[in-house]
TrEMBL record:
It catalyses: DNA(n) + a 2'-deoxyribonucleoside 5'-triphosphate = DNA(n+1) + diphosphate. Signal peptide: none annotated. Pfam families: IMS, IMS_C. It is an enzyme of class 2 (transferase). It comes from the Eukaryota. Residues 93-273 form the UmuC domain. Its EC number is 2.7.7.7. Keywords: DNA damage, DNA repair, DNA replication, DNA-directed DNA polymerase, Magnesium, Metal-binding, Nucleotidyltransferase, Transferase. Residues 1-21 are annotated as: Disordered. This is DNA polymerase kappa. GO terms for cellular component: nucleus. GO terms for molecular function: damaged DNA binding; DNA-directed DNA polymerase activity; metal ion binding.
Amino acid sequence: MSGVNTTFLGGHATKSGLPEARDRTQIDKIIQEASKGSKFYAFQQRREQRIAEKVAALQIKKTQLSTGYSKAEQETRKWLADAESRRILERTYLHIDMDAFFAAVEVLRRPELATVPMAVGGESMLSTSNYVARTFGVVAAMPGYIARKLCPHLIIIPPDYTAYRAAGAKVHEVLRSYDPNMSSFSLDEASLDITDYLARSSATPEEVTEELRGRVLRASNLTCSAGVGCSRQLAKIGSNVNKPNGQFILPPDPEKILEFLKKQPVKRINGIGKVTAKILEDLLKVVTCADIISQATWIRLLFSEIQSEFLLLSALGMGSAFGDGDGSERKSMSVERTFKKIDALSDMQVVLKKLCKRLAEDLLEEEWAGKTVSIKMKTAAFDTLTRAVTLENPVSTDEEIYKHASKLLSKNKPPDLRLLGVRLSGLTTDAPRYRCLDDFAHEPVERPSCPVCTQSIDAHPDDTLRINEHIDKCLVPQSNLVPQSKKPRRTLDAFFNKSGPL
DNA sequence: ATACATACC
DNA sequence: TACTGGTATGTAT
């Protein structure tokens, strides 16, 4: 093993293929040189080692299971036939992927950037690059300083999310006219169910997609690529086929679908990343979706049921891709920051406090509270540690979150850190508005007492509005006209702030 | 419930 | 000099 695979160094170009000014080996060499000797490089080496061990363990498992293979093969055949019989071809999905989105928005403002290598991001990380930069091997998720080694003339533009949001909103508006329930994964990608639209319009999917892309272009001055298929997953894979500024229509025909997937590398499947792709290749020589089918028995024998079912269904083009379902509620909220290495607990606490404040602000905006507080620590060597506590009652203020987070930190303080994060999960919306009046009437409760006048307040302990009204009156006795805070919790928080840490 | 790993943009 | 941040989910314990 000569060095870390550049796929693990942020250099991989699984993105759309343009002719490259430099060939792949040359690019890989430059990335290697730029990374060698860094802590990050060492970390990736350890990571690759771990993956190699995992593959070795699976290889042993494979030899041990070889006697049961033929029986398992019968079952696999049955499983595949059964799955095939349930294929759904009736709905039509369209996946939209904006071309080099952030970079394209920047080009709108500064057209001269269209013809020079340019990327959006910072010295430590790039979000995207334009197509000129890609010919140098400069891609998203690559550190800016490495990108400069590949392309010394690269122009790096700091991101302007406000502009991207505005551009994204224009695009979404167009998309919603094709599917009002359109779900967008991010600013630059969206999945539409266009079955109803097609039924109404009597135009072909090709025509509708051309028209849609034309409308997106006119509304935003941005180009996009589109894929159409009978599942969201297929539509998404298809959107990559004729990128940029192109489209691909996959007919709802099982034979055409399988023929299309045959050539697709497994890495194209949403949910298969570089680790899974490497394990599949090293263990079973699986590279394409067709390989998944031909190795289906081993996949079922060696991987978990969830994992193998996902892989096989995906390879058949029947995967229920992410976003297929609900689109549901948020499950957690978190904040994390990377910084120059720190060693002292007190410095860590200062950062942690800021993170908690930020998290509390974000929580307040959507009125969430949560029962599980977690912290995430990344050492200077890039090892990640997480620690969590689950509480009796949901919390939402920075003081409460910090109280638990800092306990977790001091109990587990690593020698050094390059990143800290706080997360709140087990979320509930903390407003008492879902309680009906009956709850208040029947529950025997203790009256809360006022921290100012120390008298008991004639209100339920959850009734922060009335409690705050009372406290406000005590705090400002000369005024009868107490302006009602829209966010009652704030008043109480402000009152107790003095006793909080820092 | 907790820790860790993988994935996506 | 320098390798993100936010969210979800799968796996193992």
